[in-house]
Every structure is written in structure tokens, then in C-alpha cells.
Write a structure and sequence with these properties.
- The N terminus is likely disordered.
- This protein folds into two domains: 219 residues, 3-Layer(aba) Sandwich (Rossmann fold); 178 residues, Rossmann fold (3-Layer(aba) Sandwich), CATH 3.40.50.
- With 415 residues, it is an alpha/beta fold.
- The chain is globular and about 65 Å long.
- The strands form four sheets. A seven-stranded mixed β-sheet has the order 7-6-8-9-10-14-15, covered by helices on one side.
- The protein is 38% helix and 19% strand.
Length: 415
């Protein structure tokens, strides 16, 4: 759900420059290659972030090709530029599916771009692998959702804030669009279920940079914790104003669902130190697999300071899940991939992930990180195992009462 960050133009210039031009990835084209699409913004406001995701996809393909490819064939990536515009995303999705005859596309970053292309994938029966954590409330047989849904970010988070931090009065703040509002719905239910209350639920438009009045409202609300669903450039402005007005992360911590290593690097670690984020993946995960992932990504992008984060890790591991599904099925049709990807597991940099056989979302391990003075997180809480994704948890879905299954959405349960 991350949007444009002008502040990253300098810090990520080397990584962005490393994103290979589409012509280079098409030069290996041959009759015996398997073509896949990478649909990410290469221009416009979202390109800073989406080029990083494209890099993760291309790195995974490079690794796959180096070990023999898929079904004995090399994989060819055709990159299309969504140009930070939902209408353009739809046009480019049509081009990849109809003209290039591609059955699988990795891509989109925002819910707006995903919603724009979804009818095309469903009508043409192609598969989209979508890596960004999102608000849920979607059940498509043509999308594999590799990022977290609300129950994987909030189901552990709200109880931990109440019981471990001892916070009982939440001020909810977000950017004004679907993701923050849907996350707030889930949060309010969990806040009340854990014996706490919310004292505010406020929204400012995307890209809003004047946070003084909102921070004053938070100060005056009586809240003892801030639940932030703020996204994009606004994160940087919000955290800086929070500190500038003398608020302390020790007494009134910001607990976020979006703030990642990318935003921390952009704002300066001192503005976020002591605050928290809930994600299935953090760059600081101390395992050989994750250290190797970080090392390889920095080499691939030729950027020794490149950071990794949840959506980027998901963009990477979903390519391997696709590979496994194709090899299990023995062909690359959407129907074959859809059937074969159900139940697939993969040892990702952040740990084992699994594609749910019911709803095509990923089982992920909830983690809570506290941001440190060095710009990295300290994982202060983690589930022992990945948990089942419930994209309709805001509407009452449970593991025992599924709304989204392999048969599709049971809309009667939403009434």
C-alpha cells in the first residue's frame, strides 16, 4: 500500500538505476522460453517503490534461470510500465495477456492498480501474483495474494499493544482511502474485544504533508497509543511532526501497519526509534537465509545500502511459488497453475510460507518490530508458525466459518 516517496530519490537512486530496461530482458526471447509479465510502474510517482519490486521479481527469475529454468526452459520477463496510473495498468495488463499471450503476471502495488486490472485477468483467465499487504475483502480465483491481510497484521498486534504495552486508549489515524479504513474496521473490533477503547479515528488525504493540527488533536485526545495506517510520503511528515511537537514514543508510541524499512530510511531513524510496526517480514530477521537474500539483492541492484521489506520479500518468493506450481502441473496455463499453486510451500527469506488451498492467499508468520536508532527493527513478538489468511476477517470470517473458498465467495455471509 506504499505510495510515492520523494525523499527516497537520493537514497534509492542506485537501486532504481539498476532496474533493467525491458529490452534487455526481452533480448533472450526464443520459442522455447517461458514468458511472464512484470507489471510495475517504471515512471511516475510510484516508480521509486515499484522498480524495487520489479527488481525482486527479476532477481528471482535470474536465480531460477541460473539453475536450469522451469521445465527445462529459461524464463523471459516482459516488463510493462503501469506509469503510476490505474488506467495505464489496465491497458498494459491487456497487452501482456492478449498480445504477448502471457498466462502469469507479477505486479501491481496499490489496491487501485490491482482493482483496475482484476476484471481483465478474470475475463481472460490469466493469473496475477500480487505481493503487497492489503485490506482484504477480495476473493478471486485469478489472483495469488502473497502479502499479509488484516488478520495477519492486527490479530496479534492489538492484543499485544493492550497486554504487553499496557495501552488502553487508541487514536486511529490513516490516509483517506480503502486500506486504512478497512484496517480500522478490524482494529476497532479487536480493541473492544481486548477491553480497550478508541478515542479518535481520523483521516487525511494521500500525500498530505501538514500534520501539525492532527498531531495536536492526538495530544489532546487522551490517547496513550497511536494506531497508524498512514501511507506514503505522509508517513515521513507525520513522524517528523510527532517528534517536533515533543511527543515521546516511550509514553505515546506510534504502532503502525505500513511503516517499513523504506520509510525509516527516508525520514531518518531518529524520528521512528521506539515506535512499532506489525509485518510478517523484517530486514533484521537473523537467519542465514535472510542474510543471503539481503546480500544477493544488494549485489543484484549494485546498491550496498539497499533495504529489503515485506512487499519486496513477497515479490521475490512468489516467483518461486509460481515455478513450483508450473513444475507440478507440467504446463503454464492459468487453470493448471491455479490448481497446482494451492498448498504450495516455500522457505522464503522470512521463513516458510504456504499458499492457502481455499483462498489463494499466503499463510504468513505475524511479527512485531520495534524500530531502533540504527533504522532497523528489533522483533519483539513473533508467532511460532504462519497463520491462515482470512481476507474477510473484518466482516466476521473465521477459520471455522470461511467466506472465501476454492468455490468462490459466499456473499450471503456478508449480509
Amino acid at each position: 500500500m506504499i505510495v510515492n516517496r520523494r525523499s527516497l530519490l537520493k537514497t534509492t537512486a542506485a537501486t532504481v538505476a539498476a532496474c533493467t530496461a525491458p529490452s534487455l530482458w526481452r533480448s533472450a526471447s526464443a520459442a522455447d522460453t517461458i514468458k511472464v509479465g512484470a507489471l510495475y510502474s517504471q515512471t511516475g510517482g510510484l516508480s521509486i517503490v515499484e522498480k524495487l519490486l520489479a527488481n525482486a521479481v527479476m532477481m528471482a527469475v535470474s536465480e531460477i534461470n541460473a539453475t536450469g529454468g522451469v521445465l527445462g526452459r529459461q524464463v523471459e520477463v516482459i516488463i510493462e510500465d503501469g506509469a503510476s496510473d490505474p488506467k495505464t495498468f489496465a491497458e498494459k495488463a491487456s497487452k501482456l495477456i492478449i498480445e504477448d499471450r502471457i498466462s502469469t503476471v507479477f505486479g501491481c502495488h496499490t489496491s487501485a492498480s490491482r482493482k483496475a486490472v482484476l476484471p481483465i485477468f478474470e475475463r481472460r483467465n490469466a493469473m496475477l501474483f500480487y505481493q503487497t499487504h492489503y485490506e482484504g475483502f477480495e476473493c478471486s480465483r485469478n489472483v495469488v495474494y502473497s502479502g499479509a491481510v488484516p488478520n495477519q497484521q492486527l490479530g496479534n498486534y492489538i492484543p499485544w499493544i493492550v497486554k504487553t504495552l499496557g495501552k488502553k486508549k487508541f487514536f486511529i489515524v490513516g490516509s483517506d482511502y480503502v486500506y486504512p479504513r478497512e484496517m480500522a474496521k478490524v482494529s476497532k473490533k479487536l480493541i473492544e474485544a481486548n477491553g480497550a477503547q478508541w478515542t479518535g479515528d481520523e483521516y487525511l488525504e494521500l500525500g498530505h504533508s501538514e500534520w501539525a493540527a492532527m498531531v495536536r488533536k492526538i495530544k489532546e485526545s487522551g490517547a496513550d497509543v497511536v494506531l497508524s495506517n498512514v501511507v506514503g510520503d505522509s508517513i515521513i511528515s507525520f513522524y517528523r511532526e510527532f517528534k517536533n511537537q515533543g511527543l515521546s514514543q516511550q509514553t505515546l508510541p506510534i504502532c503502525a501497519t505500513v511503516t517499513s524499512e523504506v520509510e525509516i530510511a527516508a525520514m531518518g531513524a531518529e524520528y521512528a526509534a521506539g515506535s512499532y510496526t506489525s509485518f510478517p517480514y523484517f530486514m533484521s530477521i537473523d537467519t542465514p537465509a535472510n542474510k543471503k537474500f539481503i546480500e544477493n539483492f544488494r549485489k543484484f541492484t549494485n546498491d550496498p545500502k539497499a533495504v529489503t521489506y515485506h512487499s519486496l520479500e513477497a515479490a521475490y518468493f512468489q516467483v518461486f511459488l509460481w515455478k513450483q506450481a508450473v513444475e507440478k502441473a507440467g504446463n503454464i496455463s492459468a487453470d493448471a497453475i491455479r490448481a497446482a499453486v494451492r498448498g504450495q510451500t516455500y522457505d522464503a527469506p522470512g521463513g516458510k510460507v504456504l499458499i492457502d488451498a481455499d483462498n489463494l492467499h499466503a499463510w504468513l508468520k505475524p511479527r512485531i518490530g520495534q524500530w531502533q536508532a540504527d533504522g532497523q527493527s528489533k522483533v519483539v513478538d513473533a508467532y511460532p508458525e504462519p497463520i491462515k489468511p482470512l481476507p474477510y476477517s473484518a466482516y466476521g470470517e473465521t477459520a471455522e466459518n470461511l467466506y472465501c473458498t476454492a468455490k468462490g465467495l459466499d456473499a450471503t455471509k456478508l449480509n
